[in-house]
Amino acid sequence: MVTTRTRRLFGGVLAATLVFSPPTPADAHDRRPVGRYVVPGDEAYPEGIVREPGTPYFYVGGMTGGTIWRGRIDQPRLRVFLPGGQHGRTSAVGMKISRGRLVVAGGVTGKVFVYSTRTGRLLHVFDSGAHDGLVNDVAIAPNGDAYVTDSFRPVLYRITAAQLSSRQVDQPLRTFVGFAGTPVKYDPGVNEEGINGNGLVVTPDGRFVLMADTNSQALYRIGTGTGGVDPIDLGGVTDIGADGLLLRAGTLYSVTSVFHPEGEISLLRLSDDYSRAEVRRRINGRGMDYPSTAAFDGDDLLVVNFQFQSTRPNLPFTVVRVRL
Q1: Among 17, 32, 119, 144, whose CB has the most other CB atoms within 10 angstroms?
Q2: 81: closest CA among 59, 111, 97?
Q3: Rounded to an integer, what distance in angstroms lies between the CA atom of residue 248 and that of residue 14?
Q4: Which CATH architecture has domain 6-25+35-309?
Q5: Residue 56, phi-psi category: left (phi > 0), alpha (psi -120 to 50), beta (remainder)
Q6: What is the β-pairing status of strands 68-72 and 57-62?
């Protein structure tokens, strides 16, 4: 879920060092949701977001420092939930919640961090051992497995439900699929400076991961049983530029700022076997500003204004509510 300028600026970080999303029911306290939320900090660069079901809370991760903020949908300002740098977490990119666990992609750290949403306690650190990657986004399967993209290294990771429920803190982050010899072609820097595997979701039947390749302007279907990889037929459309992905009721929601600094959300209707997708609608503007991804909040989307592509970001950094 990271696009232009990322490889260059992430290089500085290294030297220094959007699943199937079911509808989120409105909480009893969530009767007056806010339309715009402020993320504190002039260098926050909020990248990932997740809405916690059954609560008024949502979480946002900071790409450049690793801070994780928590917001309430009825309050206009987020607060620090986990300070940046804890446990070696110098970057917080894509994130999802599974059974009270906040699963956070750690960017150039090569790690995935897992925390309790109730206490903030560190539960797990999954380490790929790689120092040349960008662990970017997370999707949770119906069986509890987590799938994780790496935008620089041509692999898809998987963390099993058993690993997530174990008491062992330090564990390896293992490759599920290597993309060598598949239709997925990782490029070191053509259109989007080498940002390849990006947002992803898991289909509700658990059979497939749907993954965005931002650099190639493509979507792929990956079998969770076989690891087989097939391109999704977009009917000749080549300007999706998918970054963050969401999936609900057969519609794939693609969030991007590629070609659209004002932000674009594309709604794509998927075929029953997820091999084809047709663009049905596009949403632009509405307070978006170089967005990266989004989370469902009822019938709305909470969209993160990442602004990493902008040399002079508009402050304060924000999350905006987009009505569908």
Answers
A1: 144
A2: 59
A3: 36
A4: 6 Propeller (2.120)
A5: alpha
A6: antiparallel
Q: Which residues of 192-227 are buried (b: 16+ CB within 10 A; e: fewer)?
A: bbbbbbbbbbbbbeebbbbbbbbbbbbbbbbebeee
Radius of gyration (C-alpha) of the chain in whole angstroms: 17
- DSSP structure string for 221-266: EEETTT--EEE-B-TT-------EEEEETTEEEEEE-TT-TT-EEE
What is the distance between the terminal CA atoms of the chain, rounded to a whole angstrom?
Answer: 21
- Token readout for 123 is 């539960």
Distances (CA, A) of 243 to 4, 49, 218: 11, 13, 10
Say how far apart CA 24 and CA 293 lie, in whole Å. Answer: 17
Q: How far apart are CA 254 and CA 87, in angstroms?
A: 32
Torsions phi, psi of 93, nearest 5? -110, -120
pLDDT tens digit at each of 324 positions of the chain: 554 455 544 544 444 334 444 444 444 444 678 999 999 999 999 999 999 999 999 999 999 999 999 999 999 999 999 999 999 999 999 999 999 999 999 999 999 999 999 999 999 999 999 999 999 999 999 999 999 999 999 999 999 999 999 999 999 999 999 999 999 999 875 444 578 999 999 999 999 999 999 988 999 999 999 999 999 999 999 888 889 999 999 999 999 888 888 889 999 999 999 999 999 999 999 899 999 999 999 999 999 999 987 778 999 999 999 999
Angle at 46 between CA 40 and CA 51, to 5 degrees: 95
